[in-house]
Design a protein that fits this description.
- This protein is of the alpha/beta class.
- Helix content is 40%, strand content 12%.
- The protein has 13 helices and 8 strands.
- Strands 2-1-3-4 form a 4-stranded parallel β-sheet, sandwiched between helices.
- Strand 3, helix 6 and strand 4 form a beta-alpha-beta unit.
- Helix 2 crosses helix 3.
Length: 386
């Protein structure tokens, strides 16, 4: 069962022929919207791992601190509205269906809604920019699973836009945020050499990181996941320095956050809080914390960065600022619709915008891309098996 259009399930990495779609599927992670939702939501997130509720409650306090409400659903509602407005502005007549992996509205709900409207050729926008199992392949497996479970696998297809980590629409809001943060520190009298920019993203198991991206390209330690983040961070700092030459003296590094695995399992490091605690020993007086791995201000940003990392900076005696995520920045929303248009038009890879030498990324995921070493390969849409 291909689960995707012929163009997105076989052949070249980039689809350079026009493909007609009936609608757009905005695929999200999901989040609780009240205290009673928190534990059921976390059970969904950890489904199949046998984690008892007592351990889930250790994570639940992040959500309970905010009334049991994750901001992610409200952010996706806002993004859906912004996408619909930009599509109308460009006279692209495609409806946007929204479904989540772990909470209502579920992907099942979205594909059933599309089917009822006889929109059966969907192009998915997953709310994650980088390549790894959880940020790309798991969405593709979700698409295949829900098509099977709803009985729509024989009548509906779901393609997926390329990973957009280095699309200018995604990168520009980070450039703006870092430039403004560095300039504010300099205005406050901090020497550039005493400023550090920490580009933070979600840590993942090193085994998954090493298998991120296609198997026939050696991305080095951390696989495509680490390579993509490093490439974007370099691009951001180069652009900031071009706009604000004083930033040439500012140091930066890639750090990780939100680790959730057992201590015996290796995950990507260093941890953002460990790095912050050591910055005074390196002559740093001010730190810009950049949520490079995230599209919007969801719980990992609000708790892990705005709460824990900001408290760590205060404890270390550092000035700190957390820069914005893309959210519904018009430049970002326009970039997402650019991704839709390049598939509608069959734009050649050489003509697609990309801010690093790793892009433009693939439309059709390569064989064995982003393997989950614990669960193995499952059927997945928009790629070549396995």
């Amino acid at each position: 069962m291909p689960y995707a259009s012929a163009a997105a399930s076989t052949g070249p990495a980039h689809v350079e022929v026009p493909v007609a779609y009936d609608g757009i599927l905005l695929a999200g992670f999901g989040g609780p919207e009240g205290q009673d939702d928190v534990i059921p939501f976390l059970r969904n997130v950890t489904r199949g791992r046998g984690i008892p509720d007592e351990r889930l409650e250790e994570v639940a306090h992040h959500y309970r601190h905010f009334g049991g409400i994750s901001p992610i659903n409200a952010q996706n509602r806002a993004l859906k509205s912004a996408l619909e407005a930009e599509l109308r502005r460009r006279e692209i007549e495609l409806p946007v269906y929204w479904g989540n992996r772990n909470w209502a509205p579920y992907l099942h709900d979205a594909v059933r809604e599309a089917d009822a409207a006889e929109d059966r050729k969907l192009l998915a926008l997953a709310t994650s920019a980088y390549s790894s199992f959880s940020s790309c392949r798991q969405y593709r497996e979700d698409f295949a699973r829900v098509l099977d479970e709803t009985g729509l696998a024989s009548t509906m297809t779901i393609d997926k836009v390329r990973q957009f980590f280095d699309h200018p629409g995604f990168v520009q809001p980070f450039i703006d945020g870092v430039r403004d943060a560095v300039a504010s520190f300099v205005d406050d009298g901090v020497e550039p050499a005493a400023i550090r920019v920490l580009f933070s993203t979600h840590s993942i198991p090193t085994a998954d990181a090493d298998r991120s991206g296609p198997r026939d390209i050696d991305f080095g330690e951390g696989g495509a996941y680490a390579a993509q983040h490093l490439a974007v961070a370099e691009t951001v700092m180069a652009a900031v320095t071009a706009d604000f030459p004083a930033a040439a003296g500012v140091g930066w590094e890639l750090v990780y956050q939100s680790r959730s695995g057992p201590p015996t399992q290796p995950w990507l490091e260093p941890d953002v809080n460990d790095v912050i605690a050591d910055l005074p020993n390196r002559g740093v007086a001010a730190v810009a914390i950049v949520p490079l791995g995230f599209m919007s201000d969801h719980m990992e940003v609000l708790w892990d960065l705005d709460t824990e990392a900001t408290e760590a900076a205060a404890a270390a005696g550092l000035k700190s600022v957390r820069t914005p995520t893309p959210g519904i920045d018009p430049v970002f929303v326009s970039g997402l619709v650019d991704l839709v248009e390049e598939r509608l038009r069959g734009t050649a890879a050489r003509d697609r915008p990309h801010a690093t030498n790793l892009g433009p990324w693939f439309d059709v995921c390569r064989p064995a891309c982003c393997e989950n070493v614990r669960a193995g390969f499952k059927p997945a849409a928009a790629g070549i098996a396995p």
